[in-house]
Amino acid sequence: MSTSVLSKATRAIKLGMMPADGIGREVLPSAQRVLQSTPGAPKFEFIQLAAGFEHFQKTGSALPQETVDRLKNECDGAMFGSVSSPSHKVEGYSSPIVKLRKELDLYANIRPVVGVRGTKDDEKFIDSVIVRENTECLYIKSETIESTAEGQVAKAIRQISEKASTRIGKKAFQVALARAEMRAKQGSSATKQGANVTICHKSNVLSTTDGLFRTSVRSVKENDKRENGGEGLFEQITMDEQLVDSMVYRLFREPHVFDVVVAPNLYGDIISDGAAALVGSLGLVSSVNAGDNFFMGEPVHGSAPDIAGQNKANPIASIRSAALLLEYMGYPEPALKIYSAVDEVIREGKYLTPDLGGKSTTSQVEEAILKKLNP
Fold first, then answer.
1. Within 10 A of 157 (CB to CB), how many other CB atoms are there?
2. What are the tens digits of pLDDT across the range 253-299?
């Protein structure tokens, strides 16, 4: 896998593009056109790759080996659209996005949940990042079912390891540090709040698994201090904890109190989707799957089969994910231009898709953002 992009190579950056299922085939092209049109962005070469449930139905494979090999050997980064994972068991099928995260060691799913000032969401304004562990917990998909005298009994194994918990904790502190530095550069009033990492867990009940997650993340700051000779990189970052049930409660009551939240896989999935309600729609929420040398942008929403092919899907989550990908690949300036253009379109409220109460099409929202980028 190439890491030359990180040194600002002059060649075109190769991005693997996996629209996958449903509205992914509509919103990912919008993100691609925005990337191509952003002033100051690097040159791109887009490589179309197969993945998804619909591909599984046609070929028996949800994630072809060719896709994995090309991502590892040819691409500098990637974008994923959406996947239609069935709610019932389908023999031979497993989620391609879960497998991609494991194959590429994309151990962190970083999900900013950020409101737009000057909109109806000001009352419950949120500016947080949820850092979700991406490789284990219940998502290792180790399940069994057996028949007993009292009926069937299904069991699932939950895996929490010290290694995975420690490195996701370190990633959360890195994200908090980067956010603090960005606020300082922008002269934001939020700088006074400082940087904070909240550990989300349920170790009062799951004392072994969540207990290990909690202690592993807490060890990050102390280890950093010891490794850096007494004054660690994370010295100014405060740390607290929140049980996952009360986390959900406070998220809706006091969203402004959270800066960076780090959570095991399942909790991170749930609270980030719930937090999307505070900004109006899942169609606005972006994410990047991050490893140490490879990044993949992915909108948080699903494949929305009920509106697929109707030009109604909100492209903003995909466009923001493309900007987030740029940011993590070392191009913050063009990323900020995309964020700003999207915020302006949302704030003006003239071009909004139905999920936000508007009547605009996918194409119209995309065009409005492009005009903000290139007035």
1. 10
2. 888 899 999 999 999 999 988 888 888 888 999 999 999 989 999 99
Return the closest-CA partner of residue 165 out of 89, 268, 62.
268
Which tokens sit at 64? 């072809």
10 Å CB burial of residue 92 (0-12, 13-18, 19+) is exposed
- Residue that the structure tokens 């002269």 belong to: 187
Q: How far apart are CA 237 and CA 221, in angstroms?
A: 9
Q: Which class would CATH give 1-107+287-375?
A: alpha beta
CB of 128 within 8 A of CB of 196? Answer: no
Q: Phi/psi of residue 16, each to 5°?
A: -75, 125
Q: Describe the strand order of the beta sheet including 77-82 as a list of residue ranges.
A: 44-48, 13-20, 77-82, 295-297, 288-290, 108-114, 127-133, 260-263, 196-201, 238-243
Question: What's the predicted TM-score (pTM) here?
Answer: 0.88
Q: Strand locations in the chain, DSSP E?
A: 13-20, 44-48, 77-82, 108-114, 127-133, 137-148, 151-159, 196-201, 238-243, 260-263, 288-290, 295-297
Identify whether the C-beta of residue 142 lies closer than 8 Å to the C-beta of residue 165: no
In DSSP terms, which residues pair with 334 in a beta bridge?
none
**Long-range contacts of residues 355-359, Cβ cutoff 8 Å, at least 24 apart:** 355/280, 355/281, 355/282, 355/283, 355/314, 356/280, 356/281, 356/283, 356/284, 356/314
Q: What's 74's DSSP letter?
A: T
